[in-house]
């Protein structure tokens, strides 16, 4: 007796041939949102955003109303002022959260597919290694921007709504490019780095630890060298400090952490991105096309 | 696809894995139908399948799938091919429905189509309520069925099955072979079944390619491979069989007693079959059964591979 309850049926539907990497993005997000840890991280990111919204309300509505009893109090607090510093800090504080999110979401992205032998199935369908790699990179980049640039741009929009006027708009528009650049500078190298770790090692835990070790080791080495040699410029080796230095440059802020020109830390991030991209591409390509 | 275009045309195909040469001038033409790829482990069966999918690059020779040159047309070929790999595949955190739907989406189906089709193929392979359980809880047999389901999701024209009965108990094996027969017999799907197990291939396939050391060593339908031998005969006699055997030994004619009680003897080319009747008369006996001998698939296998099917199964 046949075990099947119905006979095999043909499929005569149409196939969509473009942007197959988007399916990978969709699937990754679908899997992630079922994880409690992921949701907790997103909520933490949201809490920070809510605090910044409250800051905008305090400064754009309450502090602007001379009759409000708290107006004078708020005006006295410099750290509450709405300027480029606020957006620099917003993205800077979202940085650790973004890295933790990447460790959770990205550490297993490639190595788990290898370990579970799913690569052969992916590439038996009409997708190429480019679609696969692009899908994974786009997933992390999207998630990273969702925690950094997108809420920051939302805050700018809200600032314009709460305090409308040409002056506000003219001021805000100058923060858009630095905000996007500063976010991308965090998101792209970190996403590529975690994917490279996932491609190189064979388990989620090892990938996460490797990524964390690179960040901690760079920070420690930069600080120790700067202290020992009494040369603050060695801090450029520290990835978090190099990142902050570039943020200061983008936002045109004074009193930089160290005096080295922007292209030094920038070249470190470009090098990290290119090396990571190379590792990811090589590993994924070998899964589709044997060497 | 024109009916005259064979499914696969391979000519002097060579594939290397760094220093190791996995395929050594493999040449074959596979028409539509059910084809068994039979050979011991390491013979090059999986490499051949992966080359059909475009995973491996040929270092020399050529390969055409549905008339399309590989590996240039790899993506177009994958549009028409379903692949069930040998290794165990599991996506622990998601359900069979989620997994197969995802692979349908990667083929290019809309979400609705992929979901609908997923339920159809999971019904077909016999994954019922368990389809909503996470795959980490599945047995080997269930994972094999999910692999078959994902290979069928887009209704391929060519189905590549790499050791589909691996790890299955006898009952599961029978069910898997039954499913494969259903797909190949009732639909216009060409099935290439790779196995080191002769009975699996024998049960399902009409045509067999025996592969050893990266080359096709036998190719033909079961009928052709087990063809009647021109100078070999199966006989049985009423009595005095020992005296006949003594004569064969004296003349140096190879013979052996078969399981079914018949005696198979090979005559030299210059002797007619009627000589056997004269011999029987000389020994005062009668021939009761006489027919040109047919080789068994097992003996073809031994002849081609150099080992018995049982030895190959044990090695694997």
Largest sheet of chain A, if any? none
Chain pair sharing the greatest interface:
A-B, 40 and 55 residues
Number of strands of chain B: 14
Count of folded domains of chain A: 1
Helix share bin of chain A: over 70%
Topology of this structure?
The complex is a heterodimer of chains A (291) and B (316).
Chain A (H helix, E strand, L loop, with lengths): L20 H12 L3 H27 L8 H6 L7 H23 L4 H5 L3 H4 L6 H19 L1 H14 L3 H35 L3 H25 L10 H12 L12 H26 L3
Helix pairs in contact in A: 1-7, 2-4, 2-8, 4-7, 4-9, 7-9, 7-12, 8-9, 9-10, 9-11, 9-12, 11-12
Chain B lengths: L7 E10 L2 E11 L3 E5 L6 H9 L6 E6 L2 E2 L4 H5 L2 E4 L11 H12 L3 H15 L14 H13 L5 E5 L7 H17 L3 E6 L2 H7 L2 E6 L2 E7 H4 L2 E10 L3 H11 L3 E3 L5 E4 L7 H9 L4 E8 L2 H9 L3 H7 L1
Parallel strand pairs in B: 3-8, 3-9, 6-7, 7-8
Antiparallel strand pairs in B: 1-2, 1-4, 4-5, 9-10, 11-13, 11-14, 12-13
Provide a brief overview of the structure.
The complex is a heterodimer of chains A (291) and B (316). Chain A contains 12 helices and no strands.
């Amino acid at each position: 007796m046949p075990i099947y309850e119905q006979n095999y049926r043909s499929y005569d539907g149409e196939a969509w041939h473009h942007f197959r990497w988007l399916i990978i993005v969709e699937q990754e997000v679908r899997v992630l949102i079922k994880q409690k840890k992921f949701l907790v991280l997103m909520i933490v990111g949201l809490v920070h955003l809510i605090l910044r919204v409250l800051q905008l309300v305090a400064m754009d509505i309450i502090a602007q109303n001379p009759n409000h009893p708290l107006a004078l109090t708020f005006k006295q607090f410099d750290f509450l002022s709405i300027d480029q510093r606020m957006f620099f800090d917003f993205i800077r504080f979202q940085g650790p959260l973004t890295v933790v999110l990447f460790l959770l979401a990205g550490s297993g992205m490639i190595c788990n597919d290898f370990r579970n032998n799913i690569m052969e199935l992916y590439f038996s369908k009409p997708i190429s290694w480019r679609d696969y790699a692009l899908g994974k990179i786009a997933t992390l980049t999207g998630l990273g921007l969702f925690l950094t640039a997108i809420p920051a741009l939302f805050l700018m929009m809200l600032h314009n709504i709460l305090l409308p006027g040409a002056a506000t708009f003219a001021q805000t528009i100058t923060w858009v490019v630095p905000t996007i650049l500063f976010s991308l500078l965090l998101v792209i190298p970190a996403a590529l780095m975690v994917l490279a770790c996932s491609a190189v090692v064979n388990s989620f835990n090892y990938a996460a630890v490797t990524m964390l070790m690179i960040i901690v080791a760079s920070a420690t080495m930069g600080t120790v060298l700067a202290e020992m040699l009494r040369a603050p410029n060695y801090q450029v080796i520290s990835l978090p400090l190099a990142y902050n230095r570039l943020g200061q440059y983008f936002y045109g802020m004074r009193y930089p952490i160290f005096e080295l020109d922007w292209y030094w830390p920038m070249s470190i991030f470009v090098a990290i991105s290119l090396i990571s991209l190379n590792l990811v591409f090589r590993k994924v390509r070998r899964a589709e096309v044997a060497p | 696809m024109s009916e005259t275009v064979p499914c696969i045309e391979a000519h002097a195909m060579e594939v290397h894995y760094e220093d190791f040469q996995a395929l050594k001038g493999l040449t074959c033409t596979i028409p539509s139908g059910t084809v068994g790829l039979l050979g011991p482990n390491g013979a090059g069966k999986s490499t051949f399948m992966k080359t059909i999918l475009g995973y491996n690059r040929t270092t020399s020779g050529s390969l055409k799938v549905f008339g399309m040159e590989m590996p240039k047309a790899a993506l177009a070929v994958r549009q028409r091919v379903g692949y069930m790999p040998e290794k165990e595949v599991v996506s622990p955190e998601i359900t069979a429905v989620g997994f197969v739907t995802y692979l349908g989406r990667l083929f290019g189906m809309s979400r609705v189509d992929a979901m609908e089709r997923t339920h159809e193929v999971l019904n077909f392979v016999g994954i019922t309520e368990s389809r909503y359980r996470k795959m980490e809880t599945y047995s080997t047999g269930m994972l094999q069925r999910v692999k078959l389901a994902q290979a069928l999701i887009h209704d391929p024209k060519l189905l590549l099955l790499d050791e589909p009965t691996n790890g299955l108990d006898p009952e599961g094996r029978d069910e898997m072979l039954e499913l494969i027969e259903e797909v190949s017999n009732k639909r216009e799907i060409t099935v290439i079944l790779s196995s080191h197990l002769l009975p699996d291939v024998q049960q399902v396939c009409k045509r067999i390619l025996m592969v050893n050391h990266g080359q096709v060593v036998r190719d033909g339908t079961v009928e052709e491979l087990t063809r009647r031998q021109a100078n070999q005969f199966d006989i049985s006699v009423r009595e005095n069989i020992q005296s006949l055997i003594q004569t064969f030994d004296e003349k140096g004619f190879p013979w052996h007693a078969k399981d079914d009680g018949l005696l198979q003897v090979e005559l030299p080319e210059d002797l007619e079959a009627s000589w056997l009747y004269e011999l029987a008369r000389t020994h005062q006996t009668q021939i009761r059964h006489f027919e040109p001998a047919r080789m068994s698939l097992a003996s073809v296998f031994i002849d081609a591979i150099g080992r018995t099917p049982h030895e190959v199964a044990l090695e694997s």
